[in-house]
Amino acid sequence: MKRGNIGMRFSGGALIGAVNGLLGGGGGMLAVPLLKAGGLSPRRAHATAIAVILPASAVSGLVYLFGRLVPFPILVPVALGVAAGGAVGAKLLGVLPVRAVDLLFGALMLLAGWRMLL
Prior knowledge:
Strand content: under 5%
Number of helices: 5
Mean pLDDT: 89
Number of domains: 1
Largest sheet: none
Structural class: mainly alpha
Low-confidence stretches: none
Oligomer: single chain
Shape: globular
Helix content: over 70%
Distance between the termini: 38 Å
Number of strands: 0
């Protein structure tokens, strides 16, 4: 990765965390392009995005839990499914062609954006 200013990295991380916390996701969609622009390979950018989103999601999740916004009957089965899917996705990232991952990521961003606008 290109050498960079720690303040710039912190600011980018804060923006990503704020978006993730406010919207319940989407931080990774900002993180991947920023990390790629910072010099990481696509594969490393995707993997690093997941790693940096973890603390943001954990903190936001705790705020929502303590704020009684999370229904527990939904939380447990969905969280278990997300964990299983995350393990499969992480394995796939290591074996799928980079172009396929980029196309899938871009298509998912477009689809998610389109759905939100409707």
